[in-house]
Please model this.
Amino acid sequence: MARKVKINRVVGRRVWDSRGRPTVEAEIILDNGMTGRAIAPSGASTGTHEAIDLRDGGKPFRGLGVDRALANINTEISNALRGMSIVDQPSIDRCLIELDGTPNKARLGGNATVAVSMAALHAAAASRREPLWQYLADGATPVLPRPMVQIFGGGAHAGRRIDIQDFLVIPVGASTFDEAMSMTARVYDAAGSIMSDRGHLRGVADEGGWWPEFTSNAQALDTLLEAIERADLEPGKDVSLAIDVAATQLRQGQHYLLPAEGRELESEELVEFLIGWCRRYPIVSIEDPLAEDDDAGMKAFTTKMGGRIQIIGDDYLVTSAERVAAAALLGACNAVLLKPNQVGTVTETLAALTAARAAGWSAIVSARSGESEDVTIVHLAVGWGVGQLKVGSFARSERMAKWNEVLRIEEALRNRA
Model:
């Protein structure tokens, strides 16, 4: 029985992320010889209240080494988890939280705890000889997520060439995930062709979206509409738009600085500015429209637009159940972005999802800008029935590994999802 299978040891190793930077991989070896492993991602646009990656500092790897985090896995964490039941995820994660003893995983490192926590899930599924999504669903009907795919990268993901961090498409007219991917491929290709035709093709940003070569943020939105139409699809019917403002990155004191617009806006002005875009374009989802510390602005935007579009908290909520509950009480946001490494463990990620559902919110499982071939988040989205998945663009293998994993799961499920 899987319930009797216990952790024998935990191994941490240095691997490399999509930016060529060191990151943490954890592998859990069970007493029956089975294993599970996972890799910690890292973000470029990060919230103040996120779990903290433990980095080595100093000159090697520009201070981004992970030897200290790996040492914590190979000693303290391995010793503490040895002998624990692999199917008791809450207890495993509680042990990690208590062992760390800080509110933001600063001592052991959020990169260490999230890699170990996700590796435990994989080992548990392996011990039951089930795919991870099936193990997580635990008899419930799995849900294939609708993809949210970056076409143009901006903000911190592209040297701040334009202000808005992500310009994305959602293939709302697709009836299957395979169809959603096919529609996205056509739009992505069309967008690249448009950039090439104009002599503006400059490669791709951190998450695989086309590198921005625009004179304004609105030009990116206009080009996105043009790409959808060139792909023989109808904006708003087949494919809708989403943006990630990442407004915390634009905050300068009490103002928002938008260099691409040549404007400095008050909170109330940014709200009206974004509402104007929603009137002009088929935007159905906006992430972090105001900064992480702008409660009044987030509430004002939600009050005006919450009945029409999805308003996602990322830096604003940092996958925290407590922050989700507080925001719901305030009337700010109506959706949460779920990033396991923001909070440090799988159990805390699930708590944020539970809090969102209690508030009547939607949720989106998301990757980070610094990624790997790890596909854990795909299984979280399907097994937990989250319904939406955001992993970056339609290029670069660390992104495609995740989209392709959903396709495999769709094939395995046939018409059962």
